[in-house]
Amino acid sequence: QVQLVESGGGLVQPGGSLRLSCAASGGSFFFYAMGWYRQAPGKQRELVATITSPGTTNYADSVKGRFTISRDNALNTVYLQMSSLKPEDTAVYYCNAHRVVGTSTDYWGQGTQVTVSS
Question: Mean of the per-residue pLDDT values for the chain?
């Protein structure tokens, strides 16, 4: 069983930056592709970015050029650096661990609120 704990959310002005962190425990971190998803009020959860163990990344078109996902396999942690934030980035951000070795399994963190407002 993998546990994911997000941190780093908060209130930021448009154009500002935030860095989210997600610490994983309880599993072999290298066996998991990691990702960030977000869910705004009244909307479905959507993919923001993913990163494989070797470091291949994928981004939603809406965040390309503004957000950067990275991972530290030694610290079992994945990060999301968010820059040039917009009000439409306001959402609860969730960390995801997707097992890619053996049985496919997904784990989710509890979410962290990001609010972009002046």
Answer: 96
